Amino acid sequence: MNNLLTLPLAALPEHPQLSETISFQLSGLVVVFLVLGSIWFLLEIIGKIFVLRDKVPAKTTTIVCPGAPAAAPDKATAPSPVPAPDDAIPAETVALIAAAVHLAVGSSHRIVSIVPIAPTPHWALEGRRQIFASHRPR
Amino acid sequence: MLQNLIDYLSTTGFHAVTWQMLVMWGVVAVLLWLAVAKGFEPLLLVPIAFGALIANLPTRGVITSELRPDGVYESATFNLEVSPVHSTDSPASSPDGSQTLKVEKVEGGLFDFISQGVKLELFPPLIFLGVGALTDFGPLIAMPRTLFLGAAAQAGLFVTFMGASLMGFTAKQAAAIGIIGGADGPTAIFLSNKLAPELLGAIAVAAYSYMSLVPLIQPPIMRLLTTDKERKIRMKSLRKVSRLEKLIFSVMVLMVCVLLVPDASALISMLMLGNFLRECAVTERLVKSAQNEIINVLTIFLGTSVGMTMRGDSFLAGGTLKIILLGVVAFCISTAAGVLAAKLMNVCSKSYPINPLIGSAGVSAVPMAARVSHTEGQKYDSGNYLLMHAMGPNVAGVIGTAVAAGYFISAFAD
Question: ipTM score here?
Fold first, then answer.
């Protein structure tokens, strides 16, 4: 089986001529480019499939926080409250966000909506920027 | 008593010390200085240097070296004492002339046996298992164009092959020397053991020395071939690659490489096995072993085994100096080819510019070459983070060097 698979490359003499050497090295480069080019081509196809698969439209869910003040929102600016769907943000997460907002902006605030946003690389980029900025690679 | 002391002195190793050994002690001192004081590739240079020291001491029971009729020292040979099997059930000789023998005794030093891992080409592929388990191919998958850079950086191998041929080396030796330009230690050892075992020590030392000197060798070439504007190019951030995509990548690369270059199978299959173990996330214990115990133990054995081949009487030859010279030429050409390939890609595709500094990472010194690209980029734009982008051509270079080695093997192996 191995013999069937071995490439039928022309074996060079022990001390090849310059022309033979050039021909051999060009063939070698072609083989390397062919193999890596094939992987490149297949990766582009696979990448396209995965990118398309990931492009699911982001859901916009607007919910009223369970613990939000009962004050009537301004109808012109605030979205109308809708009942939380089954796949809504869990109450624990909402509580956590409310606590974080409270800590950040103080007591005079009102959470109008919590909307999951489409995934973006910005947070990852910022994290990476901070990691790189804190190290000095050799 | 005096006679006893004289007799004892005659059994010591002082009388066996030669001038070649003394010179090699100096070489060992330089290698240890590079590794310990300068921190250049210490994980490999320390075992290699220590192995070289042992090889150049009048040791007993460590390794056996024999001078072959062609003037080359062959190390790691052991003796088998055998006797023919005589029994009524199994005749000593079969009708086809073959004989059944019983191994009575195996004699050899410690490294006569450990070095079989190099001679039988076991260690380099097993080290590739660990390399695969340690490598994240995500940057390459996210930006497959960088495979072009990894391929272009193999130009140094083939140009050096021509240079070595012109300098009088045989075609097999030239191929083994050329692989130094790939900056991949295990592949260099794998190929040189297969094609030119007599040059193994010199090639391994050259390969690892130049890999450790990447931060000194590459930057001047990178600066020479790029403009200030090119060095400041900021590349688009890489997309996130899913686990499934990485698993498909491992299997796909294995199949493509084995189908197109079957002689690279040993290296590529172990590399991709290690990577699949890493990415499948259900073989945590195996990944940890591959990333730590297996690669660490093998690195010690591989390094010392290679160092043991550096006997002064065979290493101190004109050929070694030529190999050292050709090695740096290979390295420089590979670096330049990677940078120029990136510039070429920018000419062809202006919408997705590539910072040419990442082209030099196409030599597969992982991750040192990628770090050099990143550091150089930051010298001209401190907010430019090229490390992850440079990892793409860097890991592509590992695959490219293994493919090039497979090409050489398919052309020259007996």
Answer: 0.86
